[in-house]
Model the fold of this input.
Amino acid sequence: MIEIFQYEFMQRAFLAGILIAILASVSGTFIVLKRYSMISETLAHSALVGVAVALVLEYNPLWVAVVVSVLSAWLIEYLRSEFSLYSDAILAILLSGSLAIAVIIVSLGGEFNNSLFSYLFGSILSVSNENIMTIFSFGIVALALLLVFAKEFYFIAYDEEVAQISGIKVKLLNYLLVSIVAIIIALSIRVIGTLLIGALMVIPTVAALQFRVGFLHTSLLSMVFAISSVILGMTFSFYFSLPSGATIVLCVLSIFIFSLIFNKK
Amino acid sequence: MPLRFKIPIFDVKNLNFIVNGQKILSNISLEIFHSEYIAIIGPNGGGKTTLVRMLLGLEKPTNGSVKIFGKKIKNFKDWNKIGFVPQRAAQVDQNFPATALDIVKMGRISKRKLFSSESEEDIQAVNDAMIKMDILDLKEKMVGTLSGGQRQRVMIARALASQPEILILDEPNTGVDTVSQNRFYALLSKLNKEDKITIVFITHDIGVIADDIGRLFTINQKATICNNPKEALSCEDMSALYGISAHLVHNHKHEH
Done:
């Protein structure tokens, strides 16, 4: 366990991973309760468009991913609230659309396949100091907003109409929540990967829900599950030379299965 | 009916609602005054819920106007004065991670100031609402484990926690047993008489109308207002309203 921290890249990976675990699980609680889990998958694919654009134009991929992902989140929320479309259909449409755009951009760019691959599945080896700074600065803002409006988000997740009637600015807060989720996802794809971040957002909360405890305890459990999965996953990944994102997801999946069995009626 | 204030809580004028060429509400005008106890009845699909959604600003009328406390609905900001218990109150998601206390506390959220934690006043209001609804002992219980009647009281306590002047309940008895229903009517009546909270109670079940109601609105596309429900509610009226041969049960509080 000591050996693992001798490497600077592992220290960076743990730091980034734990912060992402906290962010993903806290925001994940609200999206799961809103029955909006699939938004994490769609936004991750939108973030990939950002990465593709950044690779071609040689910009910072994380920054562009944040911008594209937030714009996509606003589009989803706009379509969901202004048109009578099924929200899961909107998510499916934007997911495939984003992936198609990303693939076309990369194929036009030619030589970025390997770089893009590392964003699909995450790569702890490639987390740079600059990445850490970006994750921290955006992450702290996202976490602060989630905590400040936690009660409102919880009420909206419980019953959107009742929340609106009681005077809560539901529309504005819905846009805020999807923006925060978009930022967190864009930040996470470096470490966890586009195809796997959804798992870290959704599974810890679903596992925590099996314990049937109040909101605060559910959020805390979800956070503990996410952080443990990241620490365990990265450790296994280091010692057994496994891909980090996938190993983290298998860890959180194991916790979920354990929660199911442990809480079986 | 003693009408204490001149400005009605709700002032609805010539309200029409047409969807895809079909008239849902036709020329509805009504007023609801402070400390009244009103029942709105009518058949399913008659437009009761649509009317309530318009009163609460969730739906825009095709034409006509709704004023709340003398203000046009788009200028009305004091939503804390209105407590709403929706139709689905008793059928909450079993897995939602909330204790009874978590739910009642939601009633205070829109009153709080940003960055401030729970105030003494919040704690007191939540406690009072739970005592009124007799659910203090259920405080730490998960809502998913409560009975229909208990959940209903939790939902009303949530609405009461914001200390509203009016309580609107949309068919809150779905999935609630008869004993709980009777207890529920007693609680509503107490809120109206002792706390002077205006009650608007919507139901399609003509058999369950409580005895203490002051006025009765029947909504079936159009509105008919009975100022003395016990006399006005004849079997003929019911038959006309529901389009069936109705049989009115008196003293239904005990028989239903």
Observations:
- Chain A has twelve helices and no strands.
- The domain at 19-198 of chain A is CATH 1.10.3470.10 (ABC transporter involved in vitamin B12 uptake, BtuC).
- The CA atoms of residues 174 and 200 of chain A lie 21 Å apart.
- The two ends of chain A are 37 Å apart (CA to CA).
